[in-house]
Specification:
- The protein starts with 11 loop residues before the first helix and ends in a 12-residue tail after the last helix.
- Strands 2-1-5 form a 3-stranded mixed beta sheet, sandwiched between helices.
- The protein has 217 residues and is α+β, with helices and mostly antiparallel strands.
- It has one domain: Glutaredoxin (3-Layer(aba) Sandwich), CATH 3.40.30.
- The protein is built from 9 helices and 5 strands.
- Belongs to the GILT family.
- It is found in: Secreted.
- Keywords: Glycoprotein, Secreted, Signal.
- GO terms for molecular function: oxidoreductase activity, acting on a sulfur group of donors, disulfide as acceptor.
Length: 217
């Protein structure tokens, strides 16, 4: 908000400084618009690894403050419940189910979005993203010990979290046929999916009315 004050007779130099200051204030204004991004992925999918490490993480460094990121590890899995216990079948076998549960447990912690993105990036950048070793190397990104995540994963809590991810994944319309699937503001678009997979930063920036500064990087 600008206020009009009577301008006394001052030196020309002072007027230039006032105008310069006003221009600087205008340039400091930043976009407060938020873009919701849901990312449906799985621990042992090479395309998921590629997207998270080469597209999401670099873009997040530039426009992360304008993103609301929902990371959903589950992928092309299925689930059944028998006598109160969940059973899962994952595209890349039981190790992937284990890896998805480990990440679901980490993401369920009360940590910042930036910490969660860094955690997932770290895990997916390991030689085996489904392994306990990956969690031991990356749990520090959440400010946690690996034991806290293992305790969740080895209890019924981890299965419940993965089942919730399954419900969310299966609710996407149209039905997910490719992993990772990227959804902006809750609405799937094949054009946005293809664009985000190959150039997430550009495609995300195209969704804004008031583009964040990082879009010009």
């Amino acid at each position: 908000m600008w206020f009009d004050f009577p301008v006394p007779i001052i030196w020309e130099k002072q007027i230039i400084e006032i105008e310069s200051c006003q221009n600087s204030l205008f340039l400091l204004q930043v976009s407060s618009e938020k873009l919701q991004v849901s990312i449906y992925y799985e621990a042992l999918c090479s395309d998921s690894v590629q997207f998270i490490t080469k597209q999401l993480q670099p873009a997040y460094k530039l426009i992360g403050s304008n993103l609301e990121v929902d990371l959903v590890p589950y992928g092309k899995a299925s689930q059944t419940q028998e006598n109160g216990k969940w059973f899962f079948r994952c595209q890349h076998g039981p190790p992937e189910c284990h890896g998805n549960i480990l990440q679901a447990c980490g993401l369920a912690t009360d940590k910042s979005q930036a910490q969660k993105v860094d955690f997932v990036y770290c895990v997916m950048n390991q030689w085996d993203p489904s392994s306990d070793d990956a969690i031991e190397k990356c749990s520090g990104k959440l400010g946690l010990t690996s034991d806290a995540i293992f305790q969740c994963a080895n209890s019924g809590e981890g299965e419940i979290l993965l089942a919730k991810n399954g419900v969310q994944t299966h609710a996407v319309t149209p039905k997910i046929t490719f992993i990772p699937t990227i959804v902006f503001n809750g609405v799937y678009s094949s054009a946005n999916q293809n664009g985000a997979f190959s150039n997430f930063l550009k495609t995300a920036c195209d969704q804004f009315h008031d583009k964040p500064k990082g879009c010009n990087a």
